[in-house]
Design goal:
This protein is an all-alpha fold. 75% of the residues lie in helices and 0% in strands.
Length: 130
């Protein structure tokens, strides 16, 4: 598997989400029909810092060998983030009444990335043939 594409894709996704959560927390809370208070805004901005941290880590590691024993912390960290996120969203899908299209699409994306990182983690990287 070409891990450069996987790392770039996850970096862009997490970076976009981090920027949106950082600059538009009030708008996101209003869109979700919740009351905007300082704590919910703070949590979204802390979440944005986590997304941006993961994004820059993935972006900087995209040229490295990932898989098997190589860069294991990066592979397992991403697998854990996307896997636990996908499971949490799966639980919410059956209970949520509004904005299901957003949760379902994010669940599909998170599930695909979780499976991809699990594959990378469990398999040895192959050499690129010229």
């Amino acid at each position: 598997m070409n891990t450069k594409i996987l790392m770039t894709t996850s970096a862009i996704l997490l970076g976009v989400m981090g920027i949106i959560f950082s600059f538009f927390p009030d708008d996101i809370i209003a869109y979700l029909n919740n009351d905007a208070n300082l704590i919910s805004i703070l949590f979204l901005q802390i979440l944005s810092s986590l997304y941006l941290g993961f994004a820059i880590m993935n972006w900087m590691a995209k040229g490295s060998i990932i898989g098997g024993i190589y860069n294991k912390p990066i592979a397992i960290g991403n697998m854990m983030h996307f896997g636990v996120g996908a499971i949490a969203m799966l639980k919410v899908i059956f209970k949520i009444q509004a904005h299901t299209e957003i949760i379902i699409s994010l669940t599909v994306i998170y599930s695909m990335l979780a499976l991809s990182f699990a594959y990378v983690f469990m398999n040895n990287p192959s050499k690129l043939e010229k």
